[in-house]
Design brief:
This protein is an alpha/beta fold. The protein has three domains: 117 residues, 2-Layer Sandwich (Nucleotidyltransferase, domain 5), CATH 3.30.420.40; 62 residues; 132 residues, no CATH class. The chain contains 13 helices and seven strands. It has a five-stranded mixed beta sheet. The chain is globular.
Length: 323
């Protein structure tokens, strides 16, 4: 098996890695072979040494909530081309190819085929500071979700458990304040982050949570055009037409964590940002549903922020004509 792979080294080889807590299953195309390694320092080191000998065109992994971070870091440090992909894209691709069975080896081959067919652009691993900030943002979102759930329970709960729920809410609010302070300190510790945050927060409606989320979870901001950045976040409407029927255009996919925070920012901007406020009023006057108008405002706010980051300019120019 290894001789077959070695003989193809230097050709356009694609590796797909199925990541689990204990194991890394690696498929090689076009050979079609599968190797397994333990998901730890020793196994990751062995995988890197083996993969370096193959000189692959691309290595593709799924984003698995952090389980992929160790091997991604090791592969990136070794100078190997790595792309971490949304799992839903892999699943949709596998279904489109008629792959219905699901085992670790089958999944690894599907991931490798995805890389071979679509050739996603390798992206460098986030630096340590960005990873730390991302972790704080994710934790903040978890706490906010728990707070919302507890407050909803309080409204419907029997009075016998009100005190317990209220104590939980108080504790969660305390933890939320602590995470907010940690985020603030982390940003102020870096001159580069401070400069970028100053640009973003100069736009009314953009607070520290939205600016930090954009910087951590959307590093492409300022490097793509308006259509690309909108599609990446998932605020670009897609047609749903068939034959003579014309369906309602809807947004789909993208980065849900960014979109959730952007929604709140756009909502605030409809009240405080003169450009977004006027845009929202014009849409409502034209008969658009409030939800549709807010989505359009999300897209407009995002494209404005994208232009500001690209030009390295704070708010102050006429952004009303940006689509």
């Amino acid at each position: 098996m290894r001789n077959e792979e070695s003989s193809q080294a230097g050709q356009d080889q694609y590796l797909g890695i199925d990541v689990s807590k204990a194991r890394l299953d690696v498929a090689v195309l076009p050979a079609g072979t599968v190797q397994s390694f333990s998901n730890d320092e020793a196994g990751g080191g062995a995988l890197v040494t083996w993969a370096t000998g193959l000189r692959p065109q691309l290595i593709v992994l799924e984003a698995t909530g952090g389980l992929e971070m160790l091997i991604t870091g090791l592969l990136t440090a070794a100078g190997l081309p790595v792309a971490v992909i949304n799992p839903r894209q892999i699943r949709d691709f596998a279904k489109a190819c008629g792959t219905l069975a699901k085992t670790d080896a089958v999944d690894a081959k599907s991931i490798a085929r995805f890389g071979q067919a679509l050739k996603p652009t390798p992206r460098p691993l986030k630096d340590e500071q960005t990873q730390a900030l991302t972790a704080l943002i994710v934790r903040r979102r978890q706490i906010v979700d728990m707070l919302t759930a507890e407050k909803n329970r309080l409204a419907m709960a029997h009075r016998r458990v009100h005190k317990d729920i209220q104590q939980t809410i108080a504790w969660l609010e305390k933890r939320l304040g602590s995470v907010n302070r940690d985020l603030d300190r982390a940003i102020k510790a870096s001159p580069v982050w401070r400069e970028k945050e100053d640009i973003l927060t100069s736009a009314k409606g953009v607070g520290p949570v939205l600016s930090t989320t954009l910087l951590c979870a959307l590093p492409e901001l300022g490097t793509l055009n308006r259509r690309q950045i909108s599609a990446l976040v998932g605020v670009c409407p897609f047609n749903r037409d068939s034959g003579t029927q014309r369906g309602r255009r809807t947004i789909f996919g993208g980065r849900a964590d960014v979109r959730a925070v952007l929604y709140m920012g756009a909502l605030a901007a409809t009240r405080s940002n003169p450009v977004i406020k006027a845009f929202y009023a014009r849409l409502i006057k034209a008969g658009k549903l409030p939800k549709v108008a807010i989505t359009a405002c999300m897209r407009k706010l995002l494209t404005i922020l994208n232009a500001m980051m690209r030009n390295k300019q704070k708010w102050g120019h006429d952004y009303s004509k940006i689509a």
